[in-house]
């Protein structure tokens, strides 16, 4: 980008900068996409574009740790693609998504990665990166993990304990994948639900004549999630592999993670906007489309105290990052399961509304302060996934991914006005304080006062290096400190019983 291009110099003036560690009044001066100075009354060259942030908060753009744009899934494709999904993201104050390369068993992970990148690059409106799902295991896959880490900028791999016969891996394979992740400095991520039990329970519910969306929750209640979470954490701990539990949906599963952290395990939990903003009573809604619109795995929980419980764990630092699991399907797609809840494509929206929902339910309700808000929506993700301080902080040298946020303005979430392609919104009617006034992506204003100034393909792929300090410092120390050692003792010289066949 040449100096003098309209967006090469930008001054965000008069706002309060909010980072994860502190807030302070300051201007932010940006040159060629990078934050150059943060301070009061900065003098800037002529021709600098000015964004007036008087009375507003100036925060690092959100990082959504968990999306599935245009995912081929359950007989259809997620309707929000890398264009509509990332455009919606920037309108809500998210400036980076980490999506999942997720292909069928038997498909080369490298080919899958190339396919997904081919889909994303021409469409993305904000920066993005990829986790890669490991849905099968072989020596070839093991080699491909190393290649992805070394040359493709991937440092996180997701495995599934659910979706039996589709994506699910057994414990023996998980043990091998975790060892590989540990050796190459990657973070193992887990979809934690007991897939065998779910398969049996789905059949039991259908035999009982329960075909509607309520059956989805009834066949995979909290303990199905908590058991798998415990197993995932236990196996990871056996091999000293760091573990990240995606979409933590229940109090029971969250408790497993909190207890493991108390014991010193290197484990992170990711609540999502859906689980923080709404609940599983929706599965009992009389309108089938409404109920089906909330179907996702693991399900939202009918215990209505769950969202606040998860929010408090974000406040206390027990939960780390927030994503959305954005994976959207229109009514006609959800209707693939109109007679059988097990065939309803799993997934909900969130990429556009995550920041507002967390502000409303977290900050406006007094559970999070503004700095913690930044930590759980941006900074912690940058640290865990090893892109800090390139992302996740407003400081000289960092990418200028910045939002100007009006904490006093309100907006009402609705499918009628949202920017996502999907025809339903799980947060319909929610009035949220906290509105994105302006979104800046790599120093360029991409959204301001409700208008987009961005084109498909403007976003960039963000490669991520392995061995994130935030994750791996303790892991590497433990490799030596906790190495099992045999007891030195004299050999046993007494009699040894002979088995029958040896006599
Ligand atoms: O329901 C969900 N979560 N859909 C997307 C796939 C996944 O498991 O993350
Ligand atoms: Zn999942
Ligand atoms: Zn309805
Ligand atoms: Zn997901």
UniProtKB/TrEMBL annotation:
Obligatory cofactor(s): Zn(2+)
UniProt EC number: 3.5.2.2
Reaction equation(s) it catalyzes: 5,6-dihydrouracil + H2O = 3-(carbamoylamino)propanoate + H(+)
Keywords, ordered alphabetically: Hydrolase, Metal-binding
Record note on modification: Carbamylation allows a single lysine to coordinate two divalent metal cations.
Domain Amidohydrolase-related: 57-446
One Pfam family named in its UniProt record: Amidohydro_1
Gene Ontology cellular-component annotations: cytosol
Alphabetized GO MF terms: dihydropyrimidinase activity; metal ion binding
InterPro entries on file: Amidohydro-rel, Hydantoinase/dihydroPyrase, Metal-dep_hydrolase_composite, Metal_Hydrolase, Metallo-dep_Hydrolases_sf
Modified residues (N6-carboxylysine): 158
Example GO biological process: pyrimidine nucleobase catabolic process
Similarity remark: Belongs to the metallo-dependent hydrolases superfamily. Hydantoinase/dihydropyrimidinase family.
PANTHER family per the UniProt record, alphabetical: COLLAPSIN RESPONSE MEDIATOR PROTEIN (PTHR11647:SF1), HYDRANTOINASE/DIHYDROPYRIMIDINASE FAMILY MEMBER (PTHR11647)
NCBIfam families in alphabetical order: D-hydantoinase
Protein name (record): dihydropyrimidinase
């Amino acid at each position: 980008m040449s100096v003098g291009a309209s967006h090469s110099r930008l001054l965000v003036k008069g706002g309060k900068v909010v980072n994860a560690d502190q807030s302070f009044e300051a201007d932010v001066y940006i040159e060629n996409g990078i934050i150059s100075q943060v301070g009061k009354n900065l003098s800037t060259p002529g021709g600098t574009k000015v964004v007036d942030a008087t009375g507003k908060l100036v925060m690092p753009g959100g990082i959504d740790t968990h999306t599935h744009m245009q995912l081929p899934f359950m007989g259809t494709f997620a309707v929000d693609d890398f264009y509509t999904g990332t455009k919606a993201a920037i309108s809500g104050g998210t400036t980076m998504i980490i999506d999942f390369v997720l292909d069928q068993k038997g498909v080369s992970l490298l080919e899958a990665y190339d396919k997904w990148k081919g889909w994303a690059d021409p469409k993305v409106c904000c920066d993005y990166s990829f986790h890669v799902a490991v849905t099968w295991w072989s020596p070839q896959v093991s080699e491909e993990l190393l290649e992805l880490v070394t040359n493709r900028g991937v440092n996180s791999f997701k495995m599934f304990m659910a979706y039996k016969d589709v994506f699910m891996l057994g414990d023996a394979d998980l043990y091998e994948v975790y060892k590989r992740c540990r050796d190459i400095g990657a973070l193992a991520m887990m979809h934690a639900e007991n897939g065998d039990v779910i398969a049996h329970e789905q059949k039991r519910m259908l035999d009982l004549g329960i075909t509607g969306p309520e059956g989805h929750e009834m066949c995979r209640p909290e303990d199905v999630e908590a058991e798998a979470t415990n197993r995932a954490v236990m196996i990871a701990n056996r091999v000293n592999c760091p573990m990240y539990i995606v979409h933590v949906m229940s109090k029971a599963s969250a408790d497993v993670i909190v207890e493991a952290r108390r014991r010193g395990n290197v484990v992170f939990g990711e609540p999502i906007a859906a689980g923080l903003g709404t609940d599983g009573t929706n599965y009992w809604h009389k309108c089938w489309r409404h109920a089906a619109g909330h179907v996702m795995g693991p399900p939202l929980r009918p215990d209505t105290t769950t969202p606040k419980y998860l929010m408090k764990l974000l406040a206390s630092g027990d939960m780390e990052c927030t994503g959305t699991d954005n994976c959207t399907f229109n009514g006609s797609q959800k209707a693939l399961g109109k007679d059988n809840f097990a065939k309803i494509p799993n997934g909900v929206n969130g990429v556009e509304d995550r920041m507002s929902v967390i502000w409303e339910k977290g900050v406006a309700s007094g559970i999070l302060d503004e700095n913690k808000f930044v930590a759980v929506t941006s900074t912690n993700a940058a640290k865990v996934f090893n892109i800090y301080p390139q992302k996740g902080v407003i400081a000289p040298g960092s990418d200028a991914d910045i939002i100007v946020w009006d904490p006093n303005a309100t907006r009402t979430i609705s499918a009628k006005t949202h920017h996502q392609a999907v025809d339903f919104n799980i947060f319909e009617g929610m009035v949220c304080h906290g509105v994105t006034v302006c979104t800046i992506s790599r120093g360029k204003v991409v959204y301001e006062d409700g208008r987009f100034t961005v084109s498909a393909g403007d976003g960039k792929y963000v490669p991520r290096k392995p061995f994130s300090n935030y994750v791996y410092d303790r892991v590497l120390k433990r490799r030596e400190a906790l190495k099992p050692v045999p007891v030195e003792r004299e050999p046993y010289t007494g009699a040894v019983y002979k088995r029958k066949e040896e006599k």
